[in-house]
Specification:
alpha+beta, Rec A Protein, domain 2, four-stranded antiparallel sheet, three-stranded antiparallel sheet, about 30% strand, elongated
C-alpha cells in the first residue's frame, strides 16, 4: 500500500504503463457474492485504473494438437472508459490474437458473412468449411479480408456502408458516390 502511494506519482509523471499480474484464490465460507479474491490486500484494487479478468474458456484444436485457446476478458474496473464490458477472442500459439478469426465471427454476427451449416461464404463465394478454414482463406486473400473488415466496422458503427446491396468501399463514400 505504501509502495503504491510512492509509485503512483512517478508513474503518472513519466507516463508509464505498469501491469501487475495476480492470481485468484477462493474465500472460504462465502455464501453470497463471488468466492474468488485476489491476493495482496486491497491496495492494488484501489490504485488500479483498469482491472481485467482474463480466462481461458476453451482450447482450439487441429486434430489432436492444441494450437490455441479461446479467451474471455471481463473489465472489472475502468477509470478511463466504460467498465463491465466483455470480449471473447481466439489466441493462436505463435501468432497471437487472430484478426481473421474475429472477422469471421463479426461477419457472421452482422450478416456480412453467411454461415450455412459448417460452411462460411461471402457474396456467394464459399470461403471455407469450418471456422479455421475460413480464417486461413481470409489470411490468404487480404483484399477480401479488407473488404469484410470495412463492412464490419461500418456495421458496428451503424453506418449505411455495411448494408449496401453492392458493397461500397470507404473511398467511394468519402468521394460522395
Amino acid at each position: 500500500s505504501q509502495a503504491l502511494r510512492k509509485l503512483t506519482a512517478n508513474i503518472s509523471r513519466t507516463n508509464t504503463l505498469v501491469i501487475f499480474i495476480n492470481q485468484i484464490r477462493m474465500k472460504i465460507g462465502v455464501m453470497y457474492g463471488s468466492p474468488e479474491t485476489t491476493t495482496g490486500g486491497n491496495a492494488l484494487k484501489f490504485y488500479a485504473s483498469v482491472r481485467l479478468d482474463i480466462r481461458r474458456i476453451g482450447a482450439i484444436k487441429k486434430g489432436d494438437e492444441v494450437v490455441g485457446s479461446e479467451t474471455r476478458v471481463k473489465v472489472l474496473k475502468n477509470k478511463v472508459a466504460p467498465p463491465f464490458r466483455e470480449a471473447e477472442f481466439a489466441i493462436y500459439y505463435g501468432e497471437g490474437i487472430s484478426r481473421f478469426s474475429e472477422l469471421v465471427d463479426l461477419g457472421v454476427k452482422f450478416d456480412i458473412v453467411e454461415k450455412s451449416g459448417a460452411w462460411y461464404s461471402y457474396k456467394g463465394e464459399r470461403i471455407g468449411q469450418g471456422k479455421d478454414n475460413a480464417r486461413v482463406y481470409l489470411k490468404e486473400h487480404p483484399e477480401m479480408a479488407k473488404e469484410i473488415d470495412e463492412r464490419v466496422r461500418a456495421a458496428a458503427s451503424g453506418h449505411p456502408l455495411a448494408f449496401a446491396e453492392e458493397p461500397l468501399m470507404a473511398e467511394d463514400v468519402v468521394a460522395g458516390e
